[in-house]
Each structure stands twice: as C-alpha cells, then as structure tokens.
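Hey L., structure's done. Input below.
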Amino acid sequence: MSATGRTELARQWAAAVGTAAYVPLSREQLELQLLDLVDELLDLVLADPFDARPAGRAGAQLVVGNITSRLALRRSIEILGAGCRRELSEHRDAPDEERVTALLAEFAAGYTEGVRQLTFNQQEELKKALLHAKRDAERELRVSESRFRELFTASAMGIAISDLDGNFIEVNQAFTEILGYTGGELGFLTVPDLFAPEETADLAVLYRHLVDEPVDRFRCRTRLVSKEADSVFAYLAVSLLHDADGRPNGHVTMVEDLTNLHLLQGRFSHQTLHDQLTGLPNRQYLHSRLQSVLGRVEEGQIITLCHLDLDSFTVINDGLGHHIGDELLKTTAQRLRAAVTGYNAMVARFGSDEFAILIEDSPTPPDVAALAARINEELAEPTYLDGYGVAVSASIGIVQRPAKGMVAAELLRQADLTLHRVKASGKAQWGLFDPAREARDRARFKLAASMPGAVENGEFSLRYEPIRWLGGGELIATEVLVEWAHPELGPLPHDRCVELAESTGLILALGRWVLKRACRDAAEWRPSEGEPPIVLATLTPYQSQDPDLVDTVRKALAEAGLPPQRLRLRLPLRTVAREDSDAADNLRVLTDMGVVVGLDEFGRDVTDFVRLPDLPIYAARFDRALVDRLGEDPDPGSPVARAVATLTELAHQVGFKVIASGVDSRAKLDWLTAIGVDAGQGRQLGLPRPAEAFSGVSAGAAL
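Output:
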C-alpha cells in the first residue's frame, strides 16, 4: 500500500474512533499517532517470518490514548482487517486470512490487557479515594468524595459497593447497563444472585477469603447472568472495604464486560481452526485432535487415518471455473461426512483438493476396503452445478494401526506417504500403510534428497556407452550415462540414479547438469582424422515435457561451443505420442534448431505407428524390456522374435532407423543384424567408458 493509502487508512481509523470514544487529542494529532500504528501493523502482516505478537503493543496504545470503548475496538478491528487484506492483495496472489486473523487477535488481546491494567489503576485510585473518605478530615473528605464520585459515576467499568452479605449498597450506571437491572431491582438481590450457577461456589470461596485470609483483593474471569438470563462474560476486580476501626465491612466489585471480546475471540478461534470454504476443521485442528486422541488411548485401541486427494479436480476448476470447483468442494465435504456416519470421526480439509478423515474410539476398527469403497461411491454421485453434472473420485492413503505409542506427526506422514504411493497406481485407488514398504520408501527418499549435495561434492560422474552400426561395427555415437559413487552404498548405476531423480522431481536439475557436462566433454573430442563421435542423451518423460527443455539445450550447446548436429536426444515415445503433451512441441523446435531427435521405448505399445509418420525423427530404439525378452540366443520362431522382426520391417517402411540396446551376446547381435536392425549398444558392442577414452576416436557415418 502506498504512503498515501496508509495515510488515508489512518484518517478513516481516526474518524471512526473519534466518534466512538472521547479522545483528548486534535484530529491531526490522532491521525499522526494512528498512522504510526498503521505502518507497524501493515509491515507485520507482510513480514516473513510472520510473527503477530508485536501487534499486541498497538492494541495497548489505543488504551494509552484513552480510546477505551467497545465500539472503538470493534470499528478499529473492522478498518484494520480491511486494510490488512488490501495490503496482502497488493503483495501476494490472495489475502492470507490466517495472517489477518492472527494479527487482529493479538491486537485485540493487547487492547484487553491495556484496559485491564487501566482498570487495576482505577481500582487503586478508587480504593485510595474510599479510604481517604473515611480517614481524612472533613475538608479532605469532601475532596476525596468528589474524586470518588467522579470515578464512580464516569467509569466505563461497572462498580458495585455491597456489604459482607452481598447486599447492594450502591451501584453506578455502567453496572446497571452491563447486567440489565435498575438500581431499584438490584436492591432485592445480592451479589451472588448475579453469578452463573457453575461459577457460584468458586466465587463464594474467593469472596470469603477476602475476610478470612490475609488478602484484600482478587481478580478473575467469570460468567455472570443478566436480567434477561443472557451470559455476561466479565473480568471481576474485587476489593475489601474496612470501617474506621480497620474491620472488614463490605466489598467493592468492579466489572469489565468482555462479552463482545469473548465472541470476537471465539470467531477468531473458529477461523484459525476451520477451513473458510467448507467449514471443516483444517490441518491444524486435526493435528491437535490427533494429539489429544493419542494422549488418552488405551492399550490395543486401533486408530484409522485416511488422507484423500481428489482425482483430476484441476480439470473441473480450469474447465468449468473456480466457482464450480468451490461448490464441488462444499458438496465433497458433506458427502465425506455422510460416508463416515456411524463412526466417531472427524472430517478435515487440508487445503486445495486434499481431505482427511480421523476415526477413533470405534468398538471395532472399520473395514478399510469397505470404507474406501463407500467414500468413492458417495463422491461418484453427480452434483448438478450451473447445469453441469460433475463428480469426482478420490485416491486414498489409509493408516490403520494400534494407537498406543504413536505420534501425531508420524501418523500424518505415514498417511501422506501412502497416498503418494496410491496416486501412482491410477485414479479412485486406495492403499493401506505398509511398514516394510514405508521403510524402503524412506530410504529411497533419503537417498534422493542427498542427490543435489552429491552432485555438488563431485560424487557423480559421466560414462559413455558406444553405439555401433551392426553391419560393420563402426562407432556412430556414445550415449551419456550417469554414475553415482555413493560413499556408503558404493557405485549406483545410471538406471537407478535416473529412477530416483524422476520419481522425486529432481530429474530436471540432474538432467541440466548431465547435459552441460556431456556437451562440454563432446566438444573436447578432436580426433586426428575423421569426425568425432556424436553424443546422445536419453530423456525421461518428465524432462521431455519440460517447458524449459529447448532453452536448457540451447544454453548447454552455447556454453560448450558444440554444434547442434553433434548432439542427439532420445524422447520416450509414450510421452511424445500423447495429444496433451508438450514433448511433441519440444521435439519439433529442437529439430528446427538442428538437434537430431530420436525416440525411445519403441515397440512398447501396438499403437506406436499411429503418430510416427507425423514426427520429424531419425531413429527409434526398441524398448529394452522387449529386447531382453529375446534372450541371449533368440529363437526366430518365438512370438517376441517375430514381433521384433515385423516392427523392424515396418519402421524401415516408415522411413527411420532402428536401434537395439541390451546387445549382450554374439548370438543376439547376429540375429538382430540378420533381421535388419541398424544399430545397437550393449556389452557385445562395448562397455561404458569415461570421456577421456573417446578424445582421439573418430566415428563412422552418423545415423
């Protein structure tokens, strides 16, 4: 928010509180004072890390400025809340309601503490006035009585003077307004008649202690009952009065009405712990509930926690609009509640399209298969919104295990890991937490998480596998492979490294590093005669669809000074063939740059040939699993061998070359050569070697 905007916000605030409370400042002075608080609060709501506690000081400053009416507090919260949301909207994608709520709660708490301290000070002044009225000379008595009468009459706090039996002697106007009784009606009541039934016994003890114990005051939060039987949440400050001889003869009870603040804090608390759209408990609330449940479980008790993710929810959001998505989320919340009817269950929304269900204290644990089926049956029923019948399914990760000794964060983590595994299996699937598999996954994630540091520490190296013409054995190219010299596990091969990086989202960073190093190595290959080998990199599905792939390749070539014709890339056929994939666009742009692109995983799907004629490719490599099924000594009559031979013939008819990996025996090499496979790689054709091994090697004709 600009300086002008903040000044205008301070001006609005000053106008609001100036009409709600008497402020002993000019309008200009008040605006300047409030402008400092506006700057402090708006800076707090944007701060990272966020800490709302300093907002309490701003609330206390209102009291210091004599702004002490309930109306002034309410208007302050309304104006500051709107200002904070506007500030967040200008600096972030959307207002952060949790930040605004926390800031206003601390502001209100600081204000309350300031008013309470003011009350204490007024009480002390009042007590001194009362004592002086009884002890001093007549002249001083008149002065003291005048001071007391001013405080008694003008105070916003309710004040009642009563005898030791609780009979009212005198009350001020604020006291009658807070409780709703007239002074005459109070004459027929006693102080304990105003206590809420559940508070009566405790308060009676506190009043009695003033007489029986060496204390002369107490303070407490409590609940009173008004004339209309409404609850009055109040802060009591009670002092003991003495006669001229020092004997106890009555009480002064001061009442601060906290009802509006209590309701406001209740609303803040609900907003902090509940999802604003669906009204469901949020992650924080479910975590607290889970901690509470685990803290009181008995031996053998089973707990069930489900973590759900709505399948393809973004399709509905993007296709039909966010308003349809929001309504569907509300319906989903209702249906999830319906799905667990009969269980002691809490349904929560974790944000976006994620939900959770906690089932506790059931006589028998729920059948998880039946529960998962019931949830997806409820969600499958179409909901008609703006004329569209929409429905969703859910992937569900379930943890069901003895609760004794478990920790809330660990249960939530187990449910999340299980959901992550389930989502890889398709839509509308569910899975149960498997401790053995979880141990393997944790080890795998730990290994993947250490990959960036391992690259930085030089634990990764590149090796190059020769690719040769099958007819004459000439070297055509080298495929770059990555190897990890892990300090504990030993060498990890290329396939293991790529699988780890692809499944954990680290493949793009690793791929950029590999491509830069490979281009740099290839640029240094300068044979004395002939052309140097081409360098080839096989990309994963994730890399192939990367919107920045073309830029990554362009930078790697430019930094190494390598001509585009010296680089070959292989993209997975299953990714390129998808209609909604960016891989096909990347393939065409790379080809226009001069980078020759081929396809990998050829033969995995019978529909491979549908799109092949439309793609600007030079060659395709058979899917490794298909080649491995040929065995070391292929049987020409086997179904696999016939399929490989047929695919080779069809590929040549379409107009591109065929490459086979896994050429690990002489018999396989001879058979693949016989059926017309153009090129290959594998143990029979040369093992992977470091870059230096190819520095003086020349290559034959390129593919």
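The longest strand covers residues 231-242. Residues 598 and 617 are 5 Å apart (CA to CA).

-- N.
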